[in-house]
């Protein structure tokens, strides 16, 4: 199969909306987030998002329905329910929604507001992701979080009261000075709330962050691996399926939006610093775009080509790595048809890399046309991904 044979309708479509402001920048965060100084220009920013969406759709009509929408940040819960409603109304006027569309909004317990939560639900948001990170006061302080454990529990209850029946909690482990007992205590605290989904991330000291400049004392690799293994066992016993590197869900409640990323689907991206991947043009090329990161620059240029800071069309020889570094994060991996329908390249393009991965014990023997990482492949992901470069 070549790119010109790729049926566009077979590639799912999502939308990512970036809301860049936070109450305070966390020292570990390398996302495009900016500490709010004064009142957030909510109306002006929503106007820019709508112009940006119109521009994104102006070069080619889009007949595919949206499978998911994700409001990320920054801290989207700094925005009012009315503002989120304006965005969703504008999107619905320009794009079809799948009947079972998943619409997620990230919330910080430190900015939780019951009226806003009700407003998000009334606007059509049907899934919320609450950034807890830890329930322990010392660890929350070390991470620069603006909320307490009790505030996290109240935010969760607030979301339930607002009508949300699909809730994710974000947690981190291998925190500064954290023990395994403390890491598992955070998981027990999360499980007590009975969420539908848990994201449990290993804290990493990312470049260009405060933690990178002044590294805290964090658990060594062996201790962190022990924490991870014990936590995975605890979550499995609680009925959560470990379906992606850092994602755990009750049956049928995996994050559809993130699954679309990992399965190399298409996604529009609007907002300051938002990234997009789109299969477009008569030759059905795969293009990646990124918007200007600074909110003011973004708002001034949204709706024009100047808002796009980076644009790159993927070369044919990049497709194996681009696809596999996403799909092999999934415990179930992928099947040949998914690779071909998402990339337009023949499955045979992966043969040399898969043969090497099999020799190294990083993928399971191919009983069918499925490619699944082994336990070693999941543990040493970077080694596995490098084979596809």
Helix content: 25-40%
Classified in CATH, the superfamily of the largest domain is Aldolase class I
The number of helices is 15
Residue-averaged pLDDT: 94
The total domain count is 2
Counting DSSP E segments of at least 2 residues, the number of strands comes to 16
Task: Give the overall shape.
Answer: globular
Describe this structure in words.
With 389 residues, this protein is of the alpha/beta class. The chain folds into 2 domains: 3-260, Alpha-Beta Barrel (TIM Barrel), CATH 3.20.20; 317-386, Arc Repressor Mutant, subunit A (Orthogonal Bundle), CATH 1.10.10. Helices cover 37% and strands 22% of the residues. The protein is built from 15 helices and 16 strands. It has helices spanning 42-58, 81-94, 114-123, 137-142, 149-161, 180-192, 210-213, 221-237, 256-262, 295-301, 319-327, 336-343, 351-359, 375-379, 381-386; strands spanning 13-19, 21-22, 34-35, 66-73, 97-107, 127-133, 167-173, 197-202, 241-244, 247-249, 266-271, 275-280, 285-291, 308-313, 334-335, 370-371. The strands form 4 sheets. It has a 9-stranded mixed sheet with strand order 9-10-8-7-6-5-4-1-11, sandwiched between helices. It has a 3-stranded antiparallel sheet with strand order 12-13-14, with no helix packed on it. Strand 12 and strand 13 (285-291) form a beta hairpin. The longest helix has 17 residues, at 42-58. It is globular and about 55 Å long. The model has no long low-confidence stretch (mean pLDDT 94). One of its GO terms (cellular component) is cytoplasm. Its cofactor is [4Fe-4S] cluster. Probably acts as a heme chaperone, transferring heme to an unknown acceptor. Binds one molecule of heme per monomer, possibly covalently. Binds 1 [4Fe-4S] cluster. The cluster is coordinated with 3 cysteines and an exchangeable S-adenosyl-L-methionine. It comes from Panacagrimonas perspica. This is Heme chaperone HemW.
